[in-house]
């Protein structure tokens, strides 16, 4: 009798052409790649890697569900294994892309006017970009924590009164300080759904603040990048 193949081996991997690259800062860029037959739900991620290597890394999908191509927002991590190799690739080259996976998605059973608070650090804004352009009717506020204003990646995507840029190292943001400080001073509704994405320190701190503010853990969703 034939043995069942382990699930991990069933994940579809394929080479996708790089259609375009937009450099947003010296270290951060949006890579637009062929979508082929991949379908995803906003908030999911794909594993991507250079065509000649064996390593891939997770990247949240930045583009909209309905777009014909797939975009990812990548920050090059100094001495990293995969992100510096991705940065060297050019339009017309190829990347390995695995099937979209993940549960950091909007619950379709929630009411249409549900309030959402999206809280990101750095490139953790990527799934929220996909939420907002996939579902323009969402009732959201987006808090984006960065060091400097130049990291407000494509901020004109968001309605100005829904986007709060928090800059910790310069004064170009709407708020000068960390997202955690903003949240402590400006609590949102206990019934809002909170989506947290980015580095684990920010996520732990925000989790604690929300619990202190009386938000149920059922209303808190998190995606940890590193
Ligand atoms: C579900 C998920 C979605 C993700 N989505 C994105 C995304 O949309 N965009 C994106 O740029 N990254 C994203 N990441 C992080 C990404 O998968 C890689 O970890 C990152 O690109 C570094 O990979 P590397 O191989 O270059 O570095 P590695 O060799 O794997 O790591 C080097 C070191 O850098 C640390 N590190 C990882 N990311 C960062 C960072 N951003 N800043 C500082 N240090 C870091 C790691 O903890 C490690 O210690 C996501 C991670 C997860 C788990």
What does this 3D model show about the protein?
The structure is a single chain. This protein is of the alpha/beta class and 226 residues long. The chain folds into two domains: 8-98, Translation factors (Elongation Factor Tu (Ef-tu), domain 3, Beta Barrel), CATH 2.40.30.10; 115-224, Rossmann fold. Helices cover 17% and strands 32% of the residues. It contains five helices and twelve strands. It has helices at 7-10, 83-88, 126-134, 179-185, 200-212, and strands at residues 13-23, 28-34, 45-49, 57-60, 69-75, 94-98, 115-121, 139-146, 163-167, 175-176, 193-198, 220-224. The strands form two sheets. A six-stranded antiparallel β-sheet has the order 4-3-6-1-2-5. Strand 3 (45-49) and strand 4 form a beta hairpin. Helix 4 (179-185) runs parallel beside helix 5. The longest helix is centred in the last third of the chain and has 13 residues, at 200-212. The chain is globular and about 50 Å long. The N and C termini lie far apart (42 Å). Mean pLDDT is 95; it is low at 1-9. The structure holds flavin-adenine dinucleotide (FAD). Flavin-adenine dinucleotide (FAD) is lined by residues 45, 57-60, 72-75, 77, 80-83, 122-123, 126, 223, 225-226.
């Amino acid at each position: 009798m034939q043995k069942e193949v382990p699930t991990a081996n069933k994940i579809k991997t394929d080479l996708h052409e790089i259609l375009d690259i937009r450099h947003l800062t010296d270290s951060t860029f949006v890579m637009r790649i062929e979508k082929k037959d991949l379908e995803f739900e906003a908030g999911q991620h794909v594993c991507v890697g250079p065509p000649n290597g064996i390593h891939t890394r997770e990247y949240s999908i930045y583009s909209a569900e309905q777009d014909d191509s797939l975009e990812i927002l990548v920050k090059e991590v100094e001495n990293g294994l995969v992100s510096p190799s991705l940065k060297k690739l050019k339009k017309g080259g190829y990347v390995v892309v695995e099937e979209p996976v993940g549960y950091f998605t909007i619950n379709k059973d929630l009411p249409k006017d549900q309030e959402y608070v999206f809280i990101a650090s750095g490139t953790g804004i990527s799934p929220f970009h996909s939420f907002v352009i996939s579902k323009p009717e969402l009732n959201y506020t987006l808090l984006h924590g960065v060091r400097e204003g130049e990291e407000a990646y494509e901020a004109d995507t968001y309605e100005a009164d829904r986007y709060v840029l928090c800059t910790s190292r310069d004064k170009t943001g709407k708020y000068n300080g960390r997202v955690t400080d903003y949240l402590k001073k400006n609590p949102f509704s206990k019934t809002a759904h909170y989506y947290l994405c980015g580095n684990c320190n920010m996520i732990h701190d925000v989790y604690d603040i929300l619990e202190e503010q009386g938000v149920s853990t059922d209303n808190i969703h998190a995606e940890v990048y590193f």
